[in-house]
Amino acid sequence: MLSVYNANVWYGAIHAIKNVSFEVNEDEIVALIGANGAGKSTTLKTISGLLRSKTGSITFQGEDIAHTPADKLVAKGLAQVPEGRRVFLEMSVEENLEMGAYTQPKSTIAPGLERVYEQFPRLKERRRQVAGTLSGGEQQMLAMGRALMSNPKLLMLDEPSMGLAPILIEQIFQIIEDLHKAGTTILLVEQNAQMALSIATRGYVMETGNITLSGTGQELLHNDDVRRAYLGG
Ligand SMILES: Nc1ncnc2c1ncn2[C@@H]1O[C@H](COP(=O)(O)OP(=O)(O)OP(=O)(O)O)[C@@H](O)[C@H]1O
C-alpha cells in the first residue's frame, strides 16, 4: 500500500533520515520505533508531504506521491495524526472534527461525525466543548477522530501515547486495534516500544536516521538488542 524507498532528508546540515526504505502492506499495523531524535517524525512528515526527500521514491497505492501536496494526499486516503495532537484549541470538538473532512464532499460530514462519535463516545458527550479545555487523552482522541473524518485508507499516528497516563495509553492502543479491525491500515510511530510492538503486525527500528532492524512485532519484542535498548532489558 505504501512504499518508501531510499529516503534522505536534511534540516540544513543535519542529515535526519538516511537511505530509509520500508513498506506498509494493506491491513497491517506497522510500528516504527526508536529513541528521541532517531528520525521517526521526520519520516512521517516526509510521507505526508510536509518535508521532501532528496532521493528515492514514495508510492501510495501504486502512485508516486513524493511531490504531491499534503492536502491532496488526504484526499487520496492518507491521513496523519501529528505529534502533540495539534487540535484547534479555540474551536469546539465538533468544529475540529468538521475540519478533518475538508477534503471531502459536505455530504460526508454527518455520517463521518456519526462514525467518529460511535468510536469515541467521550467526544460525543463533549462535542460543544472548546478543545483547549479537553484533557490530554481527550485531545488525542480528538486528533484521531479528526483524521478519521477523511475516511483514510492509511492512518499515520505520531506518538499517540505521548504524555498520557498508563490507563489512557491502554485505551488509545485499544482504539488503534479497533480501527485496524475495522479495516484501516496503520503506520504507528512510538517511543513506547512495548505497546507498539505488542499490537504491530511488523515493525522497524530507527537509530540516528537509519533503519537498523525489522521483523514481525513478536520477533522484535523478543529480540535481545531491542529488549536491551527499548524495553528495559
Ligand atoms: N525543524 C528542524 N530543524 C533542525 N533539525 C531538526 C528539525 N526537526 C528535527 N530535527 C532533527 O532531526 C533529527 C530527527 O528528528 P525527529 O523529530 O525526526 O526524531 P524522532 O525520532 O521523531 O524523535 P522524537 O521521538 O523525539 O520525536 C533530530 O536530530 C532532530 O534534532
Automatic annotation (TrEMBL):
Q: Keyword Cytoplasm: yes or no? A: no
* Record lineage: Bacteria, Bacillati, Actinomycetota, Coriobacteriia, Coriobacteriales
Q: Which UniProt keywords apply?
A: Amino-acid transport, ATP-binding, Nucleotide-binding, Transport
GO BP annotations, alphabetical order: L-amino acid transport
* Residue span(s) of domain ABC transporter: 2-233
Gene3D superfamilies per UniProt: P-loop containing nucleotide triphosphate hydrolases (3.40.50.300)
Which molecular-function annotations from GO does this UniProt entry contain? ATP binding; ATP hydrolysis activity; branched-chain amino acid transmembrane transporter activity
Protein name, per record: ABC transporter ATP-binding protein
Task: Kindly give the CDD domains that the UniProt entry links to this protein.
Answer: ABC_TM1139_LivF_branched
- Organism name: Collinsella acetigenes
What's this protein's family per the entry? Belongs to the ABC transporter superfamily.
